[in-house]
Amino acid sequence: MAFLKSRGLITAAAGLAIGVVNGLLGAGGGMIAVPLLKKMGLEQREAHANAVAIILPISIVSAVLYLIKDYVKISDAIPFIPTGLLGAFIGTLILKKIKPSWLKRIFAVFMLYAGIRLLLR
């Protein structure tokens, strides 16, 4: 937590960027959060875990606003929630077992996949 206090303006700007990207793209704010947290001194695993903690409240606010503005039907999301929660649980359990170098590679593959998919649509 001390690393955040020493960089108040930078973390505020980063939080704003993460929130905007997350609001526009879904949970895409993690793609910004992880590299920023690493640059601020966190280890790979800590950066991923903290990114999830950052994204959770931002995603909740985005989801509520999307529901209020009628952009989302809860009935469309409900089928994904149980297995999504199970996946989150499994991911949390295996995070400590994955070497940071592999975690970095896995993250990069998902980022590349997302980027290519968006470009080809």
**Rg over C-alpha atoms, rounded to the nearest angstrom:** 15 Å
Q: What share of the residues lie within helices?
A: over 70%
Approximate strand percentage: under 5%
Low-pLDDT regions: none
Structural class per helix/strand content? mainly alpha
Note the run of SSEs as H and E.
HHHHHHH
Q: Mean of residue pLDDT? A: 84
Number of strands: 0
What is the count of helical runs?
7
Q: Which sheet architecture does the biggest sheet show?
A: none
Shape: globular
**Overall tally of structural domains:** 1
Q: What's the N-to-C terminus distance?
A: 40 Å
Report on the architecture of this protein:
By secondary structure, the chain is an all-alpha fold. 80% of the residues lie in helices and 0% in strands. It contains seven helices and no strands. Helix 2 (8-25) packs antiparallel against helix 3 (30-39), helix 2 (8-25) crosses helix 4 (44-68) and helix 3 packs antiparallel against helix 4. The relative contact order is 0.09.
